[in-house]
Records
---
Amino acid sequence: MSVPVIAIDGPSASGKGAVAHLVADALGFHCLESGALYRLVALAGPQDPERTAKDMDVAFRDRRIFLSGQDVTDKLRAEEVGVKASAIAQRPGLRQTLLHRQRAFRQPPGLVAEGRDMGSVVFPDAVLKVFLTAAAEVRAQRRYKQLIDKGIDANLHALSRDLEQRDARDAARKVAPLAPAPDALLLDTSEKTLDEVVGVILGWCRERELGGRRA
Ligand code: C5P
C-alpha cells in the first residue's frame, strides 16, 4: 500500500502552514511546506531557478530550514521573498524540477503536504484533499500579526496589496494555478480558530481511518 498523503492547499496566509504542522504532529506524519522550496529558490539563485532548484543543498530539521548548512528560516518568511517566489513559480521548468524534490517527502508512516497544487498536481492520489480559504482582510491581518510577532517590520496596507497581487498571479498562471482539486473539501477558516480548523481536518482523517499514532 502506498504511503498516505494529506494535501492542504489554499491562498497565502490562509493558515495552511500552522494547520499542516499540527495535523502532521497529531498523526505522527511528516510535513512538507512546499512554498518553502519556491522561497528557497528565490533566495538562493533566482537568476537560474531551474538549476538552483536542482542543485541547492537544503535540509529541513526541527521546523528549521537550512540552505548550504545555514539556517535561513527567518529570512525565508520575509514578504519580499514570497513575492519573488510567486514570480518564479510561474515557470513550468522550475515546477517540474521541484516535483521530484516534493515527492521525495512521501515517507512512511505518511505525509501532510501544504501549498497550492499538492492535491491537484504533486499528490493527485492523496487520500484527503483540503482547500483552505479565508476572507482577504482576515488573511492580511493574520500575516501582519505573524510578521510583527516575529519582530519583522510590516505594513498592513502594503501587505494586503501584496497578498492580493500574489494570489491573483498564483490563480491566473498557466501551470498548476491556485485552485481546489475537483475532489478537495473546502474549509473556510475566516471565523475559526486554529484548533477548530485542525479539529475539522482530524475528523476527516478519522473518517478515512487515518488514525496514525495520536489522532
Ligand atoms: O506558501 P508560500 O507563501 O510560502 O509560497 C510562496 C509562493 O510559492 C506562492 O505565492 C506561490 O506562488 C508559490 N508556490 C507554488 N506552489 C506551491 C507552493 C508555493 O506555486 N505548491
---
Amino acid sequence: MIAQPEASHFVNGAYLEDAEGPQIDVIYPADGRSVATLHGATPDVVERALRTAQAALPAWRAMTGTERGRILRRAADIIRDRNRALSELETLDTGKPLQETLVADAASGADALEYFGGLAGTLTGEHIPLGGDFAYTIREPLGVCVGIGAWNYPTQIACWKAAPALACGNVMIFKPSEQTPLGALKLAAILTEAGLPRGVFNVVQGRGDVGAALVTDPRVNKVSLTGSVPTGRKVYAAAAAGMKHVTMELGGKSPLIIFDDADLDDAVSAAINGNFYSSGQICSNGTRVFVHRAIKEAFLQRLADRVSNAVIGDPMDEATNFGPMVSEAQTAIVLGYIAKGQAEGARLVTGGTRLDRPGCFIAPTVFADVTDGMTIAREEIFGPVLSVLDFDDEADVIARANATDFGLAGAVFTRDLTRAHRVVAALEAGTCWINTYNLTPVEMPFGGVKASGVGRENAKAAVDHYTQLKTVYVGMGPVDAPF
Ligand code: NDP
C-alpha cells in the first residue's frame, strides 16, 4: 500500500518538488508503515506559490461566476467518479475506516464544490434607492487566501475552504497538516483537470513554520484555519498584525444533553456518533454527555452493550467501523487523558486501554460519574473518550453546559418540543442539533462561538467570509455646498 504522490507540492497548475525541504514521512497509523515520503516547502516553494497565486488572481476574478462555478462542479463530478480511490487514499492518510471515508470525506468535499459551484453565478451586490440618488454595492473577492488544515478531515477541510474561496473569485494556497498531506494534492490535480486556471489553487506542504510564513506574508488577504485553539490564537494574532480577514474553525468540548423523556436508543446512537466516529477525532464531538439521573444507568447499560459491538480492525476492510488514532503522538495524548480520568475518580465503564495489536488503536472508552471539574470534562481530548455527567435540572444543566471557554457545538435529546428549542436557544454554541448529532451538510452554516472560532464555513454564510463589499454612491442631481 503505497500512496506516493508525483511530488510534494502543487503550484502553478503542476506538481512541484524541492527535495531541499525537510522530509515528511506519511505513516499509515493502522500498522505504522510509511506510505509516502514528502518534503516540506522551502522558502523558494512558498515564494513561488505566493507569486503564482497573485498572478492568477486578476483573470480568475474577472471570469463570470457561472464560468467559475462550472469548473468547480466539474471537479465535484470527477471526485464522485473516483470516490473509491480517493477514499482509500484518505484511509491511508488518516487511518479512518474505509466504511467512513467512502461516505464522509471526498463525498462531502464534492458536495461543497457542487454547492458553491452552483452559488457562484448568483453572487451579487445590491441596489439601494436613495430618493433620486442611489447607491449600489459590489461584492468583491478578498484576493489571495491561505487555507490551513487539521489532520482529521484532510480532503473535506481542503474542499470546505477551496470551494467558497474559489467560487467568490479568490485564489488559494492551502497547507495541509503535515500528518495528512495527500488528499489536498489530489484535489489540486482534479481541479486542474476540471479546467481550473494555473495558480488559482496551490498546495504547499510543511509544518507550522510554513503556515506561519504564509499567514504573515503581506500579499495574503485572508486566512482560514482549521485547528486547535492554541494554534488559532497564534494564527489569528499574526493575521491581525496584517489586518487580514480570518476564519477560525477550532476545537470544542461540546455538551450533548439527554433528558429523561428522550428516545433512549436514538440518544445512545447520537452519543456513539458524537464520540466514536473517526475514533473521536472530530472537533464538534459531544464529549460531555449530560444524562438525566433518572435514565443514567439504563443509558450506560445500552451504551456499553452497543460499544461492545464495534468492529475494530483493518481500516481497509469495509466491515471495520472503528479505526486507529491518526498518530503515535495523538495516541499518547489520549492515553494520558484516560489515565487522568481514572486518577481523578471517574468510573471506567468500558475501554480505557491501548489494544494489543500493531497500530495506534485505543478501545472506545466510556467514563461515568464524571464531574465538571475533572480534566476529561474540561479539555478537548480528540480521541474515543466519552464522559457521562449526571444532571437533574434543566437550568442547572444549561449553566454547566455553558461553563466552558469552548462554544463549537451542542445538542439536546428530548421529546418535549418547547424544551428542545428553549435549551438550544440558551446554549452558547455555534452549531446545535435537536434529536440528532454531528450532521453537517454543506447547506448549513458551521462554526463556533467563544474560543471555538470566528466566522462560518459552508452555506451562504461562507460567502460573507470570502468577499467584501465596495459601496458606490451615485449622485444624480446638482451638488449642494455650504459656500
Ligand atoms: P493544530 O492546531 O496543531 O494544527 C492545525 C494546522 O495549523 C496544521 O496544519 C498545523 O501545521 C498548522 N500550524 C501550526 N502552527 C501554526 C502557526 N504558528 N502558523 C500557521 N499554521 C500553523 O491542529 P491539529 O492538526 O492537531 O488538529 C486538531 C485540532 O483541530 C483539534 O483541536 C480540533 O478541535 C481542531 N479541529 C477543528 C475543527 C473545526 O472545524 N472547528 C475541525 C477539525 C479539527 P502542522 O500540523 O504541520 O504543525
